[in-house]
Amino acid sequence: MTQTIETPSGDHLMLIGGERVAAAAGEWIDVTSPGRRGLSLGRTPRAREEDADRAVRAARAAFPAWRATHFKDRQLALLKAADALEAAAEELAQLTAIDTGNALRPQARPESQTLVALFRYFGGVAGEFKGVTLPAGDDQLQYTRREPLGVVAGILPWNSPLMIAAMKVPAALAAGNTIVLKAAEDAPLTIIRMAELVAPYLPDGVLNVLTGYGAEVGEALVQHRGVDKVSFTGSSRVGHHVASAAGERLAHVSLELGGKSPNIVFPDAVAGDRLAATATGVLTAMRFTRQGQSCTAGSRLFVHRDVYDEFLAELVSQVDRLVVGDPLDEATDMGAIINQKQFDQIKSYIADGRAQAGVEVPLDRSEQVPDGLDGFYQGPTIFSAVSNDWRIAQEEIFGPVLVAIPWSDRDEVVRMANDSHYGLAAYVWSQDLTAALDTAHRIESGWVQVNQGGGQMVGQSYGGYKSSGIGREFSIEGAMESFTQIKQVNVKLG
Ligand code: NAD
């Protein structure tokens, strides 16, 4: 049996220039567990501008030597770090469950495994951040160098901190940048622990971690002239602001923002024994086992009218079996919502949906609270007969709330799917290759999956269209574009 880690407590310090430090002003933020209201997890420093400046200086100081390091050594460092993270994977998974409320079995463990896999992947391809040579004649040497940008500020959300950190840290470091990570105020503990585990393999200052509020230390990083690139993952609202602030001083910027992704079910995906498998796939794509707190949640479900009732009945029956409970319990399918604000917001969307004329509610376990637990627990809700222009169909709820909409014609469903200011992910369910790929190609989203609904695969491209973001950091090509800049060198020989 797996041993449960001790409940975190005490002061969880930041990492700046290889030192474990508190905030310069000596201020703190209390950390609590979403799964157990009132359970203290200790406190983290409330960093402000002065701390951001110190971390950026440390990262700048470490940059020249790190960029000059042979890629084999950066590779080795990342691979050793991956081994250390793998040895601590269960600890990191449990810490994720405690810190974020994400259930251990379906979400937190896969997340810590993804962290390890991405350190290995980007460690492995560290030598690929390279340029090209132009065949410009024997008296010319014309080549490009892919040079690191410098100091990257990685700003993280709370919903899956390790996974998002894994999408930034190893790629940025493999390319020769140094990094300052800003953990989300609601889920900082796994990031601090990850840094502790990785730090022994990196020179001081190559990886730095700050904790604190977005409006304080986050803003200070975005504005800091010593930050060459802002790599932001979070809400579209804050993302717009980050883009304009970084744009003002012409800093590089990548934005991974929100989504309201479509799940499109064709009649043949429901035929015979495919019914159950497609429903399970939609359940996964909706990220119910992350309480819907995922930017790629397929939260708008479009089902063909011919199979609408049959499919919805199967989906409701599967979703209704999900166990809501303590994130650390192996039996739990759905853990807790991150905080009171998010919890209240989800409830207000449900009230708004219920108030719409003609809406149907085939499943609503939103008031379900597991016995003996006092946390932000929220069972799944499915709305049916929804109109695509209602708020619950247009706005990102970031909770376990799915809206179902019938369709009759492929053009109509593509139009409805694209009628959103978001464009992050999409899921198409059909055995008809032409119908599936025609739909996939016409959807305005950065990532379309056909007949599967899982998370990002190591090595794939990932990023948003429209208000879901700018830039692609994931994949080797994305990382090359996002974490390096090209220098052309032309030499006259002889
Ligand atoms: P958020 O935008 O409120 O916060 C994200 C981070 O930005 C936090 O660390 C926060 O402290 C910081 N921040 C806030 N204001 C800032 C400012 N003025 N300057 C600099 N930093 C600031 O988002 P959240 O509530 O933590 O996360 C949920 C959102 O993140 C959802 O919209 C979700 O879709 C999105 N998200 C997107 C992806 C993706 O890959 N596209 C992944 C995960 C989450």
TrEMBL record:
Keywords: Oxidoreductase. Its EC number is 1.2.1.3. It comes from Nocardioides zeae. This is Aldehyde dehydrogenase (NAD+). It is an enzyme of class 1 (oxidoreductase).
